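S.,

As promised, the 6-O-phosphono-beta-D-fructofuranose run. Input:
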Amino acid sequence: MAMELSWQELEQHHKLISEGSIAELFNKDKNRFNKFSMRFEGILLDYSKNLIDETTIKLLLKLAAESNLSEWRERIFSGEKINHTEERAVLHTALRTPKTDKLIVDGENIIPQVHSVLEQMEGFVEKIHSGEWQGFSGKRITDIINIGIGGSDLGPRMVVNALHPWQSPNITSHFVSNLDGRELSDTLERVEPSTTLFLIASKTFTTLETMTNATTARNWFLQQSGSSEDAISNHFAAISTNIDECLKFGIARDSIFHFWDWVGGRYSLWSAIGLSIAVSLGMKQFRKLLAGAHAMDNHFREAPLAENMPLILALLGVWNRNFSTIESLAILPYESSLNLFPSYLQQLDMESNGKQVDRAGDSVKHQTSSLLWGESGSNGQHSFFQFLHQSQTRVAIDFIGTINPEHKLKGHHHKLTANMLAQSEALMGGRSIEQAQQGLATTDLPSSKQQLLAPYKTFPGNTPSNMLLLDRLDPYTLGSLIALYEHKVFAQGVIWNINSFDQMGVELGKELAKEVQYELESGNGARKNQHDDSTRNLINIFLERRVSRH
Ligand code: F6P
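Predicted complex:
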């Protein structure tokens, strides 16, 4: 009830503040940057380019307090089963907790288990890097192929890509996720069976895409190498909660890396699912990634609400989504190493918070999540930025930039950063028709042409954006950045009163696909009284026109 009152207060406040613009707020308050920015270690968050003032933040913090945010924080960290639909604790934070800490879940301290898997990973990585781990013909491993999808792919793929300057020069990493055989086929063409190690990453070890790719990879390996099934143990490792299925697949017990049902798929890169990261970058860097995330965990857990970076980011998201009714959130890293960060965040945010029922099973009262998308800068400026500047659709933006790049080329980074800063300024400030006219008046164009062009050269502006400026994109800071967004997503779920940790919306399509798969593979076509007319016809046309049969 109290929460509903805060919600109404925020609605009323929004009516007032939206009579003006963000640019006007800057004109009124010369100290705006200091008021609406904060730092956590090597990460600066400037959120002053949002349509907010001190009252907005005060009311949003009141909303957070009334949503029992502080209590929920403690519930997640302490291992309470807050994923109530699946009756599971949500403890990805335990995966980055130091060895000396203690966390009792179901009567057992889970931290030693976490560290024992980290040590198993360390041993494995050392053997691969030192060449002690050999393929069937006695050669050392040069290529690893991570086969997984969703959380068993996006996080590790994004981290390995983002941290390529730290990659071991002796190992080439590949990632295969798609059911489309093209991805696996192209990858297999680039590797030698005798020097390749497959990491089969799947929490359940039943996921269609992963098991199809893993089975194909296994058959390819046996055929190409001409070796017996015994050689599988030198070339396949698995990461899963389902040990029985890994054993059935032929993976040696020592090469199975276990994790736990309290690690959600999209939160699993910190677990053994991150083995591809550890092999690519080395265990030392993997531990730095964990340390950076742990530092952000401590900040989220301990910092007062008003100084809490993940919470502030969450509240700004709620403000833009629910009160300014902006449906879309663009993630624009001006750092090409983070080019996979938007797709990683899509799963984190949209699979967590794209929900229609609340914790009581009732319809959610407010819109949840955003349509999240993005692309690294400055590429986007030459594709969709026209839309951001002049379409009728409003988009909120998170810009992410680095101060010190990892490359050594001169003449790039100032230009890149100038473009990021200028875009956020232009998107916020816009350009009025009078300004456009003044600009045109300085040209040689005839005045009729100036009049014609002026409306085309105006920009509405008022686009809200956050700026995350990283001192460097190193393993530690990337760990903190990912954890920042994880906690943001969790805090928003608390405010919307939803369970951010299940994903039942992925099920219906998968169930129907089984039926269609049977109809396609049997070659008999759509069964009578199944499907709508469109789907039935498409199934039959596919079969009629198909030439190849594999
Ligand atoms: O897309 C649904 C999902 O269950 C994700 O939540 C998960 O990350 C992905 O599939 C892969 O699941 P698994 O790791 O069990 O193969």
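The chain has a mean pLDDT of 97. The chain has 22 helices and 13 strands.

- D.
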